Amino acid sequence: MHLSPSTAPRTVRPGEELPLFDRRYAVPFFMVTALFFLWAMPNNLNDVLIRQFMKSFQISRLQAGLVQSAFYFGYFCISLPAALVLRRFGYRIGLVTGLLLYAIGCLLFWPAAQANSYNFFLFALFVIAAGLAFLETGAGSFITQLGDPATSERRLNLAQAFNPPGTIAGALIGTVFIFSGVEPGPADVQTMKSAGTYASFLHSETLRVITPYLVLGTVVFLFALALFRVKFPSPTLSQEQFPHEPRGPVTSLFRIPHFVSAVVAQFFYVGAQVGTWSFLIQYVLDYTHQPEKIAGYFLSGTLLLFALGRFVATALMKYVRPNRLMGFLALVNVLLLTVAIGFPGWIGLWALMLTSLCMSLMYPTIFALGLKQLGPDTTLGASVLVMSIVGGAVVTPAVGFVAERMHSTAWGFVVPLVSYLVVAWFAFIGSRVRITPAEIRREEALRVSSI
Fold first, then answer.
1. Which DSSP string do the residues of 30-61 spell out, in sequence order?
2. Please, which residues have CB within 8 angstroms of residue 158's CB and are 6 or more apart in sequence?
3. Is 180 helix (H, G, I), strand (E, B) or coil?
4. Main-chain phi, psi angles of 384, to 5 degrees
5. What whole-number distance in Å separates Cα of residue 338 and Cα of residue 193?
6. Alpha helix stretches (DSSP H) within 234-361
7. What is the signed CA dihedral for 371, 138, 241, 263, rounded to 10 degrees?
8. pLDDT score at 178
9. Residue 394: is it exposed, middle or buried by C-beta count within 10 angstroms (0-12/13-18/19+)?
């Protein structure tokens, strides 16, 4: 079975609407789309883990932020090797490899909890992220290429629409099965210490993470077996689409201005998203004084808004250019975060939650705009864009650091505010395609021939 979609948008007759994807390949399209749900769950389980580990390991906001650092550093380290595996062995093998790493990382939570080791948990999160790097690199580029280039943003936004339900599921699972609801005050802590039961209480809180991760790991392993049996359109779509064009080294991509701008924008966007969700529970605890389980439900609520925003954005892109829509919503988020910082409390909380509604289209839109006209370098470009997810590892501790220095969780959100300004710049200015890899290679060939 082979797939040879057009390398450029075809002419559309008046009244004709381009299909999002070739119906002959519905099975691989929907199976890969299901991955968007699966990889979202650990991302937002992390937000619950941060609060849980602050309690069970008695660590600071900055130290707890290392959960996201270990996780997104895994993306950074593995994305390029993942792209090489995808190039060499194809999408099916690459995606199954990612699922197996994901499952192994989840299963490592059992020995980490038994050992009561925070560093072991960080290693397990790194392994999970290594698997997700395969999934995001492969699934993103696969979806963008499975149809006409003119509909790539809409196609990826549709697939990404199944990502928010996964984030909601992750947050709800963490809230219900990881949070115990037991929040001892200073007097209770002193009583347990006097009775010699405080250490066992903290360890019991750590053990609560085992069951959700063991179940998730089992489900992911079974899905890997199912995906292995699916016949994919071709081993490497980007090479089959462009059989007469050589693929360049990764360094050649950094001569493409719109691609470089997308990498920078994705770094700051992911940092803003992860930094906001990671400390939303703490914001609720600090300024509305609700218990941790209620705070967890507020996290689920903001993720529901995120899901709603993804579907609305996909529909609006039929009428509004994706880059302009993204730029407008990035500026709206700047205003919302200004409110969250200036008015900590219920008003600030609702403003903070609404940022999820506006941010929902940003990741897939930046991804698709960055891959525009990369030709046979699409898979390699996707891996670099996934590497930029390391922004979550950098920005999240920065939010914690600012919050610690200012003695205010609210002031920590200055960091995501600045990040959205970068996204707005990319949307309005940096996303314009100025030159493509093929044009660079032609220029180099002409220069060599003229010598």
1. HHHHHHHHHHHHHHHHHHHHHHHHHHHTT--H
2. 20, 33, 314
3. coil
4. -70, -40
5. 42
6. 237-241, 250-253, 257-278, 280-287, 292-316, 322-342, 346-359
7. 10
8. 94
9. buried
Closest by CA position to 146, among listed 136, 156, 137: 156
Tokens of 40: 């979202």
Q: Which two tokens stand for residue 2?
A: 């082979």
* Residue 351 is assigned to a structural domain of this protein: yes
Strands (DSSP E) found in 174-257: none
**Contact of 113 with 207, CB cutoff 8 Å:** yes
- Torsion 336-337-338-343 (CA) sign: positive
- Domains identified in the chain, total number: 1
List all residues 6 or more positions away from 48 whose beta carbon is below 8 Å from its beta carbon. Answer: 170, 171, 174, 175, 178, 179, 281, 296, 299
Q: Do the domain assignments include residue 406?
A: yes
Q: What does each of the 451 residues of the chain score in pLDDT, given as a tens digit?
A: 334 443 444 544 544 566 666 677 778 888 999 999 999 999 889 989 988 999 999 988 778 888 988 998 898 899 888 888 887 888 889 999 999 999 999 999 999 999 999 999 999 999 999 999 899 888 877 887 776 666 666 777 778 778 878 988 998 999 999 999 888 888 999 999 999 999 999 999 999 999 999 999 999 999 999 999 988 876 544 444 433 344 555 667 888 899 999 999 999 999 999 999 999 999 999 999 999 889 999 999 998 999 888 788 878 888 899 999 999 999 999 999 999 999 999 999 999 999 999 998 899 899 889 988 787 777 778 878 888 888 988 998 899 899 999 999 999 999 999 999 999 999 999 988 877 666 766 666 666 666 6
Question: Which phi and psi angles does 426 have, rounded to 5°?
Answer: -60, -45
Tokens of 361: 């289209």
SS3 state at 397:
helix
Q: How many CB atoms lie within 10 A of CB 279?
A: 27
- Residue 96 maps to a domain: yes
* Residue-number span of the structural domain to which 62 is assigned: 34-450
Query: Reduced to 3 states, what is the DSSP secondary structure of residue 291?
Result: coil
Query: Counting every residue, how long is the chain?
Result: 451
Name the amino acid, one letter, at 68. Answer: Q
Residue 209 lies in a domain: yes
Q: The domain that contains 274 carries what CATH number?
A: 1.20.1250.20
Extract the tokens encoding 273: 């998203």
The number of angstroms, rounded, from the C-alpha of 2 to the middle of its chain's C-alpha atoms is: 30
- What's the gap between Cα 192 and its chain centre? 40
Asked whether the beta carbons of 90 and 235 are under 8 A apart, the reply is: yes
